[in-house]
Specification:
This protein has 28 helices and twelve strands. The protein has 778 residues and is α+β, with helices and mostly antiparallel strands. It has four domains: 228 residues, Up-down Bundle (Substrate Binding Domain Of Dnak, Chain:A, Domain 2); 114 residues, Roll (PH-domain like), CATH 2.30.29; 114 residues, Arf GTPase activating protein (Annexin V, domain 1, Orthogonal Bundle), CATH 1.10.220.150; 271 residues, Serine Threonine Protein Phosphatase 5, Tetratricopeptide repeat (Alpha Horseshoe), CATH 1.25.40. The strands form three sheets. It has a seven-stranded antiparallel sheet with strand order 4-3-2-1-7-6-5, with helices on one face. The chain has a three-stranded antiparallel sheet with strand order 10-9-11. It has a two-stranded antiparallel ribbon with strand order 8-12. Strand 2 and strand 3 form a beta hairpin. The radius of gyration is 41 Å and the shape is elongated. The C terminus is likely disordered.
């Protein structure tokens, strides 16, 4: 097999070149082994032939002595022919092939040693140049000079090495064929009397002879061409190697751009490794060796951005950011960095211009899962993913088509707006920023139950009634599927950023709306006041003992004393407290104080609408208030500085709380009593909301003006389930602190328990309000 190495490819020192060199070296080693074996066999054949000649000569002489008149001439002719045959084998095979092995293959090995040595020196120079800190100029200059000298030496040696390889590959066939053909002619002479048998091979031998002549001519021509290329490339100016990288979207091999970059690993030590990167098929991939399967960094460049990085010690760094991760890379020079950044930007633009199965390609990529407890691993069994979430969301009226362009069968959603989107509109929504729209996949992301219910309570029809209320009045055209991207993008920005099509309510309309919502809240509060909040725990004593024992052995827990109860809440103390049967007292006074509140403000505003709508559990009115400019963390100074999120807790709706949190509500904002949403959820016994706030980062150590924490309130109210959740969250936090700064998101058992409560609060809330005794479960 003839393997030719390209001179241009060797200057890139690419994985393809390294793979070709490795294949050539293996092929040459195999050739050398076979030639050595053939020479040894030839020597054995010649030695055996000489013994055969001697024995044959003695045999002929014996016949002559016996017969006196024998056909000695015919017999005697066999011996000279055998001598000629083995003599030809000695010259054609043994001598010629030994010369080829000793001369040509020896030169190849010497060139290989020089190439391996200079390759190691170049690798060391590249690493030293990459590690030179920007603030030490003398080290930078020294590293740059060493790299320049090493590259120059490498180019000379690698070109000589490639020339040696190509000449050897061209010559080997003619040398071997020449020796074999000479040996065959010797056999033709020897088997003169068997000419009829060999005559069948004569056309083949003539053909091989013609091929030999042509091979010699071709080899001489190839040698001249290679020497000419070698001389031409040798004379080129390689002082601007960094400018040779160019983005070519129409490349024959589908690779728009490729080259070496240093990549920062995602491990705890943030190590840097040099890898061969390439942009192909709208993906950014890298590989260590040519035979390795490429590792995909960005599966679809339409979902990513690229930016310079000047806040780290290394020079020439840039970052490619996708919805799920980011990749920090380093080029060898500023020109190369600019070339790569431009190439990624061009790829993004090219990907959006291309027509075809864009939706199918992009749907392979999962988006960021906001607030998910399982973002680092496999989705939990109770969370919905794929077709289940898709079917539930698309079943809502208006959701079967994209909210903004009408394309059927959308596969993406904006979770803070509660709408479904097509592939193109989802990319535009991402570019708006998460303060406007948070995009997730309906088929690939894991959907928590509360988030899925949020999507099902809003929908495209509800949101469009708000954000497109005046579209027809203003004569604005709504884009359709297949319209140019820039037109769709302009419409979406006008709709959600500028809010150009929203109908602003008059003062009287706003007052009517707020009064109506406050009346709904009053009726709801009356209903809630009639319910008992205290109930038995969902856990039996044996379950609690096993649960806390698990956490006791998982980390070294610090004992926490409750200032209100005076009970030492260590793991054992918690078990003793939770094992006791709760009393049947009704809702605490702190939880009752708001049930009869009905305050008429002096001034009506969208913030006040959001305030009362949150308590009245009216998501459409909440979405309308946000669209009209309501501040999600609006403070009602006439009602103890409560916020919409605190009012959502009062209303008892888990989905309402989730909607506010997805729209950037502060989970730790306190009222005039120093109580945050977690305090209020604990006082009211809303277990599902407590679970939600803990998942979203609520501070369970925050104390109100009476120095009471949520845990102290839960202990005082003897709410076993909420105490369990708060203690488990505290233990999980301590476990993570004990494991160090590189620990994962939390214990799997802790996550499973929280998933159980989330599932019940969203899909089976009656389980959190039932009355049962411990002996019934145990």
């Amino acid at each position: 097999m003839k393997i030719t190495v390209d001179f241009e490819e060797c200057l890139k020192d690419s994985p393809r070149f390294r793979a070709t060199i490795e294949e050539v070296e293996g092929d040459v080693c195999e050739l050398e082994s076979k030639l050595d074996k053939l020479v040894k066999l030839c020597i054995g054949m010649i030695d055996a032939g000489k013994a055969y000649n001697a024995a044959n000569k003695q045999f002929v002489n014996g016949i002559r002595e016996l017969a006196q008149q024998s056909t000695k001439d015919e017999r005697r002719q066999g011996v000279p022919f055998l001598v000629i045959l083995f003599d030809q084998a000695q010259r054609s095979i043994k001598t010629q092939l030994q010369t080829f092995v000793k001369d040509d293959l020896r030169k190849f090995k010497e060139a290989k040693k020089q190439f391996d040595k200079v390759s190691e020196e170049k690798e060391a120079a590249l690493i030293k140049n990459a590690q030179a800190p920007r603030n030490k100029q003398h080290e930078v200059e020294e590293a740059t000079n060493i790299l320049t000298a090493t590259r120059k030496c490498f180019r000379h040696i690698v070109l000589d090495y490639v020339l040696q390889i190509n000449v050897l590959q061209s010559k080997r066939r003619s040398e071997i064929l020449k020796s074999m053909l000479s040996f065959m002619y010797a056999h033709l002479t020897f088997f003169h009397q068997g000419y009829d048998l060999f005559s069948e091979l004569q056309p083949l031998m003539k053909q091989l002879g013609g091929q030999l002549d042509q091979l010699v001519v071709d080899a001489a021509k190839e040698k001249r061409d290679m020497e000419q290329k070698h001389s031409t490339i040798q004379q080129k100016d390689f002082s601007n190697d960094d400018t040779k990288l160019e983005y070519n979207v129409d490349a024959d091999n589908g690779i728009a751009m490729e080259g070496y970059l240093f990549k920062r690993a995602s491990n705890a030590f943030k190590t840097w490794n040099r890898r061969w990167f390439s942009i192909q098929n709208n993906q950014l991939v890298y590989q260590k060796k040519f035979k390795d399967n490429p590792t995909v960094v960005v599966e679809d460049l339409r979902l990513c951005t690229v930016k310079h990085c000047e806040d780290i010690e290394r020079r020439f760094c840039f970052e490619v950011v996708s919805p799920t991760k980011s990749c920090m890379m380093q080029a060898d020079s500023e020109k190369l960095r600019q070339a790569w950044i431009k190439a990624v930007q061009n790829s993004i633009a090219t990907a959006f211009r291309d027509k075809g199965d864009d939706g199918e390609k992009l749907d392979r990529k999962s988006s960021t899962s906001t607030g998910s407890l399982d973002s680092g691993g496999e989705p939990k069994e109770r969370s919905l993913k794929g077709e289940s979430a898709l079917q539930k969301v698309l079943a809502i009226p208006g959701n079967s088509c994209c909210c903004d362009c009408g394309q059927p069968d959308p596969r993406w959603a904006s979770i803070n707006l509660g709408i479904t989107l097509c592939i193109q509109c989802s990319g535009i929504h991402r570019s708006l920023g998460v303060h406007f729209s948070k995009v997730r996949s309906l088929t690939l992301d894991t959907w928590e139950p509360e988030l899925l219910k949020l999507m099902c309570e809003l929908g495209n029809r509800v949101i469009n009634q708000i954000y497109e209320a005046r579209r027809e009045e203003l004569g604005a055209r709504k884009p359709q599927s297949g319209d140019p991207r820039h037109e769709v993008e302009a419409y979406i920005k006008a709709k959600y950023v500028d809010r150009r099509f929203i109908r602003r309510p008059s003062d009287e309309e706003l007052r009517t709306k707020v009064v109506s919502l406050s009346k709904q809240e009053k009726r709801l509060s009356s209903t809630v006041a009639g319910l008992e909040a205290r109930r038995d725990s969902l856990f039996c004593p044996d379950e609690l003992d096993s649960l806390f024992s698990y956490f006791d052995t998982s980390s070294k827990l610090r004992s926490i004393k409750s200032a209100d109860s005076g009970i030492q809440n260590s793991a054992d103390g918690s078990r003793e407290m939770l094992a006791a049967t709760p009393s049947n007292n009704s809702l605490t006074d702190a939880g009752k104080t708001n049930t009869s509140r009905h305050i008429h403000p002096k001034e009506y505003s969208p913030g006040l609408q959001l305030f009362w709508a949150s308590c009245a559990r009216s998501l459409p009115d909440m979405a309308e208030a946000l669209a009209h400019g309501a501040e999600v963390n609006w403070v009602n100074t006439e009602d103890e500085k409560r916020t919409p999120l605190i009012m959502a807790v009062q209303g008892g709706s888990l989905v309402t709380c989730e909607f506010l949190l997805q729209n950037a509500a502060n989970v730790n904002q306190q009222d005039a009593q120093g109580r945050g949403p977690l305090h209020h959820a604990t006082m009211l016994g809303h277990t599902g909301q407590v679970c939600l706030f803990l998942k979203r980062g609520a501070n369970q150590n925050a104390a109100d003006i009476d120095e009471k924490t949520p845990l102290a309130m839960a202990v005082e109210a003897a709410n076993a389930d909420i105490v369990t959740l708060l203690r488990l969250a505290k233990m999980n936090e301590e476990m993570r602190e004990a494991e160090g700064p590189y620990s994962q998101s939390g214990d799997e058992t802790y996550q499973d328990i929280f998933q159980d409560f989330t599932h019940m609060a969203s899909n089976d809330p009656e389980k959190l309000n039932r009355y049962q005794q411990y002996d019934q479960r145990c």
